[in-house]
């Protein structure tokens, strides 16, 4: 039966060749020729700039529905690599469609090639943890989020999911049903030159202002990528809740959530994987660097909106304030877990708070923690932690938020330490006015 597919495909290739006029310049999307025939949703992602029948034939195979011919499916096993931010994946055949990760076998990979194991004992074991529909292969094929273990069953150091799963299975945390809404910002770069999409190579666009949520070819760069990603995420079963163009041209955001507990981390990691795949096909480079361009250009963050059951119920604002107090006492710990290079972003400018100072406020985007007007008005709701960088690990950030606000109680030491820090800062800020020289200067001006 499978053989019948081949002549049918050849016929279609012939038909496309016979109509070269159908693909004018206007038919090109990212250098891909539109055939004018009914296209599948993801045809736009096809590779190569070639316009011969070879590409069309390849697309036929890539888009081929295998379900009438075999029960077997392809599972793409995905894991976080040795830098803690890179994603790796490889494929395997599974004998029939699955609905739950527990139906999938464990697998392994060469950890010495991902910076995760020594060469002489290189095997790392993949444990399937969450499954999603595969928007690239379609059908019953799946993407599988995995975490990583030694052959003896110990989580390896870059496995942050294991610890997060522990926090999120603690009965105290479970009973608080923690919700996370994560705003993932990212920047698109032109390949080879590593300069933002839409920016003149070797130069700069006009200053920030017209680009946020903008339309128009001189203001919005990469919308097709953002949109393809949006639909692919919906298809996959990711709890994506919106997208917007950002303040810096070439920068975008999407939101995932609210999601409960460990799901937030799984969904962000898979959404990043899908984004990497789409940008790969578009020939554009994705960066999650928190400050891709120095100077008067916004950085990229991963604001984490957070609430517990008691924050969402009447009287919740008091619970939110208590959570903010805990967060203030552990500011340094949180900053150390919120992403590499975040000090380049958290300058106190460009809608950020300084990395050294904890602050919070209602509707204030220059604070570490923002509480929305709505939450204040209703007396319940959620808080927004604006500190996490775009390259943060969502397993680390979500688990730490839950730990600090649900499991941790402020110790006397923590409070004394925080008070000391405040006192020191106060002295630093006011030292200038205490010096006689300055007092003199003040009198003369
Ligand atoms: P911003 O105004 O900061 O740009 P966004 O609209 O981009 O905010 O993102 C807000 C996020 O907060 C969304 O992902 C949304 O799902 C999430 N959210 C809404 N309510 C809650 C809640 N009670 N707890 C946690 N997250 C929430
Ligand atoms: Mn947002
Ligand atoms: Mn944003
Ligand atoms: Mn935000």
Automatic annotation (TrEMBL):
It catalyses: L-glutamate + NH4(+) + ATP = L-glutamine + ADP + phosphate + H(+). The keyword Metal-binding does not apply. GO terms for biological process: glutamine biosynthetic process; response to cadmium ion. One of its GO terms (molecular function) is mRNA binding. GO terms for cellular component: chloroplast; mitochondrion. Residues 93-118 are annotated as: Disordered. Its main location: plastid. Keywords: ATP-binding, Chloroplast, Ligase, Nucleotide-binding, Plastid, Transit peptide. InterPro entries: Gln_synt_N, Gln_synt_N_sf, Gln_synth/guanido_kin_cat_dom, Gln_synth_cat_dom, Gln_synth_gly_rich_site, Gln_synth_N_conserv_site, Glutamine_Synthetase. Its EC number is 6.3.1.2. It is found in: Plastid, Chloroplast. The keyword Phosphoprotein does not apply. Residues 157-445 form the GS catalytic domain. Residues 73-153 form the GS beta-grasp domain. Homooctamer. Belongs to the glutamine synthetase family. PANTHER family: GLUTAMINE SYNTHETASE (PTHR20852), GLUTAMINE SYNTHETASE, CHLOROPLASTIC_MITOCHONDRIAL (PTHR20852:SF118). This is Glutamine synthetase. It comes from Oryza nivara.
